[in-house]
Specification:
The complex is a heterodimer of chains A (about 200) and B (about 700). Chain A starts with a helix and ends in a 5-residue tail after the last strand. The relative contact order of chain A is 0.21. Chain A is built from six helices and nine strands, in the order αβββααβαβαβββαβ. With about 200 residues, chain A is α+β, with helices and mostly antiparallel strands. By secondary structure, chain B is an alpha+beta fold. Chain B folds into four domains: about 180 residues, Immunoglobulin-like; about 100 residues, Immunoglobulin-like (Sandwich), CATH 2.60.40; about 170 residues, no CATH class; about 120 residues, Glutaredoxin (3-Layer(aba) Sandwich). A five-stranded antiparallel beta sheet of chain B has the order 1-2-4-10-7. Chain B has a four-stranded mixed beta sheet with strand order 3-12-11-6, with no helix packed on it. A four-stranded mixed beta sheet of chain B has the order 13-20-19-16. In chain B, α6 packs across α7, α7 runs antiparallel to α11 and α18 runs parallel beside α20. The longest helix of chain B is centred in the middle third of the chain and has 34 residues. The relative contact order of chain B is 0.07. Chains A and B meet through α1 and β9 of A and β11, β12, α7 and α10 of B.
Chain lengths: ~200, ~700
């Protein structure tokens, strides 16, 4: 039996990681934050990390901030000692691209509190993670394993603009609770919704 | 008249002028008030095929979007980003609205992403039905929200309304347009079609009747998590069929259905078809029939029973039962409790093994490993395993003998939990003897779906626990039990033969997958394994240099056996050097002259349909063996590089491309087989050959 299992294991090691996959380790990255400092994902090993792809000009993102839905999620994360990285993958000249000053101003005016706002103007991190929309959320556990990817809540789908976000099921908060309890994440993958990430073409 | 103005290229009008026109429009036409809305870079309008209807009638309504150049709005599945329009109807009592009827979309790339939607102009249809309770005049109100997107997205919303009077339906100006949109909605796909999954791609294949001209095709998935939106879909058109290769989604949501809309384009017209196929039916899993399943479960149970008679388990049996008797101090109830918790322990352990296996298997499947289970490498490893098991049964080789001593660990604990733990331990303790048996169970289970694996292991566990359970109910039976002795060794040795039988059967399977030479290599590998195990047995008690020498020899032999294992399918016919199965007109002629039946496969490496057919049908062991049993010669005409003689042969059948499958009976008249082969279909064709 050990023979069969060891063969199985050998084949397992050959798994290639094309895209980020839930329950698999995430790729590391190194980006400059809105204060010009280098931020490396692996620095946060030992802490839970949330990645939020954002674009302040996108109406989906705007609604999440205007209704305080995003800030409330950030509060929940902060209380759970979770690192929150807002990532901007908008290329220069496209919607959502901001200078560091503008980024900090946005954080202030929106009463948001990400741990860092990261500039991914080349879009390399966004593409490595397969970020498609703003918002697009990822939850990474203390060991650097992806636990959740997808939408922030279940308000997506047609008629989003009419929906009351306070009634939606917040996938990030649920996943954080479940992660804390050590139970399985109920919805580990959901369909992300929002504007397309404005990648450099 | 005003409506006509709005039908015209409205986009070119300046905002001011259009605003003025809206004012004019709303002011001048009370009947159509609020039927129109101007938003940035888009206008929407509610239209109806008739302004009158009667109870029981169905009315076709449209929400018409006109978009400025370069702007688009979305389909029900927007692709990587965006969102389709939503229409919320507020209807008076007695009216009912259908869901939105979505016209077929366009693929609108937003590098590096892909979205699905509409450019320029689109009408989303809704059917409104007037029930008996309907009261006229009725004002139908629609709250519409949608996105107009270019490089950025602008959310829009509008409230539109339309008043319907009672009366016979009378076509309005919009009636023709609405019915045209309705007729162009995605239809049921009349052609025979199927979907296959190979190497992270879906292959949507359909038969084409006559000369249906198709110049391009595109599949729009209905749900997230089915296919990758941004990766290219590759179309291949054959004479009577087409194959569309659609990359699977990076996100695996294990959807049950392959559902969406297929666009077929023939330069003149674009037609959309609904596709909804069950993905489970298409999975190539060789699942057992009910009677096979019952048989497997019974054999697993018997296997579990036999485990008890293994030399390192059997002595434990009576000891354990005597333990129960002691601990129960004559109480029959307690005795039964011990028996039950012991059995529970055994079952839980077997279930854990099954769970572990399933975990490994699902991990393997997620990388498309399920497919390789039928690969020659896997079959070879199983052959080695069974040969090895047989040898250990025949010899006095004790693998992991130390484990057996664990059995004494928890003697002395007197409660029910300890009986449970004893059950767990019994399985582990017995493993030196049972591992070979378990090996075969694992081998079978790996090839079966999860539930069957669990069934096999539960029956094994039940078989293993059964004697204990029965004896705990009827301790007096203990006297009838045979004493441990030489008969056990004889039984163990006898069990080697079924193991070798299994190896023989697997060799037959392998012979359908690789060439004779490779089969011989595998048999040589099996010989090496036998030699290695013999060496191990001979030097069991030796030490020092002799032990070191024998161990390195064993390692070398095992390594050599592995090295000899074939790693991939070898289609004998692919081997040009042998040329045995490679098509040539002369070879075909001589075979037919000898009245031999021939299966002729025209293929090419670049032909998607050919590759799918080969993977799911022609490479199947069942097909190879069916061909062999009917003495049908398999010939392959490989057109990967253009070849004059093959082209000529194709031309004989009016073909300019591959695939083409010809089945010659001994009379020499070929049957032209369909381009999309299935295993059952081909088997029945082969069956019909005399």
């Amino acid at each position: 039996m050990q023979y069969v299992i060891s063969i199985l294991l050998i084949i397992f090691l050959e798994i290639s990681h094309a895209n980020v996959q839930t329950e698999k380790p995430v790729p590391d990255f190194n980006l400059l934050n809105s204060f010009g400092e280098e931020v490396k994902l692996s620095e946060f090993r030992g802490q839970t990390v949330i990645l939020e792809w954002t674009n302040h000009g996108c109406p989906f993102v705007a609604k999440h901030y205007k209704t305080n839905n995003m800030q409330n999620t950030q509060t929940a994360a902060k209380e759970a000692n979770v690192v929150w990285l807002s990532i901007i993958s908008s290329a220069p000249g496209t919607q959502g691209f901001v200078t560091n000053e503008e980024a900090n101003e946005l954080t202030k005016s929106r009463n948001a509190f990400p741990s860092h706002v990261l500039q991914d103007t080349e879009g390399s991190v966004g593409k490595a993670y397969g970020a498609k929309t703003t918002p697009h959320m990822y939850l990474i556990d203390k060991a650097g394993i992806l636990k959740y990817q997808g939408a922030i809540d279940d308000a997506g789908g047609r008629g989003f603009m009419f929906k009351d976000l306070s009634e939606a099921k917040n996938y990030i908060i649920s996943a954080l609770i479940e992660l804390n309890k050590g139970t399985e994440i109920t919805d580990p993958i959901t369909k992300p919704y929002g504007c397309s990430v404005k990648y450099k073409s | 008249m005003i409506n006509i103005i709005f039908k015209k290229p409205y986009k070119s009008l300046s905002v001011k002028l259009s605003l003025f026109l809206i004012l004019l429009f709303t002011a001048s036409s009370s009947l159509w008030s609020d039927s129109f809305f101007q938003a940035s870079d888009s206008t929407i309008e509610i239209t109806s095929e008739s302004k009158t209807m009667e109870k029981g009638d169905e009315l076709l309504l449209g929400i018409n979007f006109k978009l400025s150049p370069g702007w688009h709005t979305y389909w029900k599945n927007p692709g990587d980003a965006g969102e389709g329009a939503s229409i919320t109807w507020q209807l008076p009592k007695g009216f009912k609205a259908s869901a939105i009827l979505w016209p077929g979309p366009e693929a609108i790339p937003v590098e590096p992403l892909m979205t699905f939607g509409y450019e320029d102009e689109i009408t989303l249809l809704t059917k409104i039905r007037a029930l008996d309770a309907a009261v006229f005049p009725a004002t139908l109100k629609a709250k519409v929200s949608w996105y107009t997107c270019k490089d950025i997205c602008v959310p829009q919303e509008a409230n539109l309304e339309l008043t319907i009077q009672n009366g016979k339906k009378l076509n309005t100006f919009f009636a023709n347009e609405l019915s045209a949109v309705f007729l162009d909605l995605p239809k049921k796909l009349p052609n025979k079609h199927r979907v296959e999954i190979l190497d992270s791609n879906y292959f949507l294949q359909m038969e084409l009747e006559g000369n249906t001209p198709v110049s391009s095709a595109y599949f729009f998935p209905e749900e997230y998590g089915l296919s990758s939106y941004s990766k290219e879909q590759v179309l291949e058109i054959n004479k009577n069929s087409l194959s569309l290769q659609i990359p699977q989604s990076e996100v695996d949501l294990k959807l049950q259905n392959f559902a969406g809309v297929l666009l077929l384009d023939n330069q003149e017209s674009r037609t959309f078809f609904n596709v909804n196929l069950d993905l489970n039916n298409n999975q190539k899993q060789e699942s057992l029939s009910i009677s096979d399943l019952v048989l497997t479960v019974i054999f697993a149970f018997i296997g579990g029973l036999i485990l008890n008679a293994m030399p390192c388990v059997f002595p434990i049996l009576s000891i354990k039962i005597l333990n129960f008797v002691e601990q129960s101090e004559g109480s029959k109830e307690k005795m039964i409790q011990h028996g039950l918790s012991f059995s529970a322990g055994v079952l839980v352990t077997f279930l854990s093994i099954a769970g572990l296996l399933l975990l490994l298997k699902s991990g393997g499947e997620s990388i498309g490993w399920g497919y390789q289970l039928q690969s020659p490498l896997m079959v070879t490893l199983l052959i080695y395993l069974f040969v090895g098991i047989g040898i250990t049964f025949m010899s006095n080789l004790v693998l992991g003998g130390q484990l057996a001593q664990l059995g004494n660990i928890n003697q002395g604990y007197g409660d029910i939990t300890s009986s449970f733990l004893t059950g767990v331990l019994a399985v582990i303790v017995a493993s030196p003897c049972t591992a070979p048996f378990m090996g075969s169970a694992v081998g079978i289970a790996l090839l079966q779906p999860g539930l069957i694996t669990i069934a096999i292991f539960v029956s094994l566990g039940m078989g293993f626990a059964a004697p204990y359970l029965i004896l705990s109910f009827y301790p007096s039976l203990l006297r009838v039990l045979p004493k441990p002795g030489a008969w056990m060794e004889t039984l163990k040795q006898f069990m080697a033969f079924p193991m070798w039988g299994s190896a023989l059967w697997l060799t037959w399977v392998l012979s359908g997958q690789v060439q004779t030479d490779s089969v011989l290599m595998v048999l040589l590998g099996a010989l090496f394994i036998a030699l290695a195990l013999w060496l191990l047995e001979k030097n069991q008690s030796s030490d020092g240099f002799v032990k070191w020498l024998s161990l390195s020899a064993v390692t070398l032999l095992l390594g050599a056996a592995l090295w000899l294992a074939p790693t991939d399918y070898e289609n004998a016919e692919q081997n040009k050097a042998s040329d045995l199965n490679s098509y040539s007109p002369e070879l075909l002629e001589s075979l037919l002259a000898e009245n031999k039946p021939v299966f002729l496969n025209f293929t090419a490496d670049w032909c998607i349909t050919c590759k799918v057919n080969e993977a799911i049908v022609l490479n199947q062991v069942s097909i190879k063996n069916a061909l062999r049993s009917k003495n049908i010669v398999y010939l392959k005409a490989d057109w990967t590089r253009k070849d004059e003689t093959i082209a000529n042969k194709l031309a004989e059948y009016g073909r300019t491309g591959v695939p083409l499958y010809l089945l010659y009976s001994s009379e020499g008249t070929p049957l032209i087989l369909p381009e999309l082969l299935t295993e059952d279909m081909l088997l029945s064709y082969i069956e019909s050959i005399e």
